[in-house]
Every structure is written in C-alpha cells, then in structure tokens.
Specification:
Layout: H1 3-17, H2 25-32, H3 36-44, H4 48-70, H5 73-89, H6 100-123, E1 124-130, E2 136-140, H7 153-167, H8 170-181, H9 186-193, H10 197-215
Antiparallel strand pairs: 1-2
Helix pairs in contact: 3-4, 4-5, 4-6, 4-8, 5-6, 6-9, 8-10
Length: 225
C-alpha cells in the first residue's frame, strides 16, 4: 500500500468516526445549511465535519464531470479521491475571494487534463516496424476498453453522448461539460480553465456545433437562453 492509499484509508476511517450521533445531529444539520465558503472557513479552523459535508455535496457532480471528460469509471474514482485529498491537504491555500466550487473544479480539471494527456501517450505504442526505406514509425492503437452497459434506453443514449464527447477535441469537450453538464457560469469556466471569456464562449459554441452534428439523431444539445 503506497502513501496515497494509506492517506485515503485514514480519511475514510476518520469520516466513519465522525458520523453524527443523535446528540450531534442538530449541529450537523446546522452545518449543512451553511454555504460552501462558510464550510471551508470552518474546515480551515479545524472543523473537519465541514469537509465531510463538502465531499457529500460535490462527490456526485464532480464524478459526473470527470466521467464526461475521461469516459472511464475506474479513472473517475481515482481522480475523485485525489481531488478531495488535495482539498484536504491544501485547505489553507484556499482564499474566500474565489468561490469554493471554482477552486474545486480547478483542482479536478487540472488532474483530468493531466490524466488525459498521460492516457494519450499510453495509447501510442512504438512499434519497431520497418518500411521499405527502413525507417521506424509509430502506429496509434485506439483504446477500446470503455464498454458501458447497454440494457436500458437511457444507458444506450448516454453511451452515444459519451462517445460523441470523446470524438471532439479536449479543449472543446472540457468547456462544454462545464457549461452544459455542470451548469457553471462563463465566469466560473474562465477561472477554472484560465482562458479569456471570449475564448470560453467561442470554444463552447464550437464544441456544441460539433456535438450537434454527432448527436443530431440521438440527443439535442441545449440552446442558450
């Protein structure tokens, strides 16, 4: 077991120990009514239950974001845990001038982009093949490991959406997922990606256009109001 795995086991054990007892339920419910930023301030001050609530709030939407970006449930689980591990370890670097959700998605986005680029490198195998000129060349072997369940109509539709997302370039996929799946504002997306507002809007429009072409018979993309 490596250091990161040990950290995760410890965090899970501590979280189980912090499950609210009857006498602490009122306090826990009071914490749940607080904003993300207030919870983060309490966490920085030592109230670890605030961290548990933040994890509970964001684990599902964050997992959905990572899945739409990467398309691999196994990688999603690892990156989700790593994201929250970094929040836990780097809690004192958070400043309230930024929304907590923006800070969180920035961490997750950086991890997802890094994993995506690693995966692209792993997919290219250097095959020592020799052509007529005795020159070496590389052949790209596509990753065929993603095979979602197809038993229900919604799952089949989701498969088409995910496959379409995988076909558009990374720079378009990320912003479309942040906007149309995670429902984040243009301002938040600009902060998360570090892109100018005009570039964000342009990439979203171009990404939507590409997806509309791929999904025109399956799932209409939402129109901006």
């Amino acid at each position: 077991m490596n250091i990161q795995q040990k950290e995760r086991v410890v965090l899970r054990r501590e979280a189980l120990q912090r499950l609210p007892s009857e006498e602490n339920k009122a306090r826990y419910e009071e914490l749940q009514r607080l904003s993300d930023e207030d919870l983060m301030a309490l966490f920085q001050a030592g109230t670890v239950e605030a961290f548990d609530i933040l994890v509970s709030r964001y684990k599902d939407p964050l997992a959905n974001y990572l899945y739409r970006f990467l398309g691999d449930p196994k990688e999603v689980e690892d990156l989700l845990q790593e994201t929250f591990m970094r929040v836990y370890r780097n809690r004192h670097s958070y400043r309230r001038i930024a929304k907590f959700s923006t800070w969180l998605y920035t961490i997750a986005g950086n991890l997802a982009r890094s994993e995506y680029r690693k995966r692209k490198r792993r997919r290219v195998y250097s095959l020592q093949s020799v052509n007529r000129d005795e020159e070496e060349y590389e052949v790209e072997i596509p990753d065929e490991t993603f095979a979602p369940d197809r038993h229900t109509e919604s799952t089949i539709q989701d498969r088409y959406i995910q496959e379409a997302l995988k076909q558009i370039p990374e720079e378009f996929r990320e912003v479309v997922v942040l906007r149309d799946v995670q429902q984040l504002s243009y301002e938040e997306i600009a902060e998360i990606t570090g892109l100018p507002m005009g570039t964000v809007k342009s990439r979203i429009n171009r990404g939507r256009t590409k997806l509309q072409a791929l999904l025109k018979d399956v799932y209409p993309m939402p129109e901006e109001s």
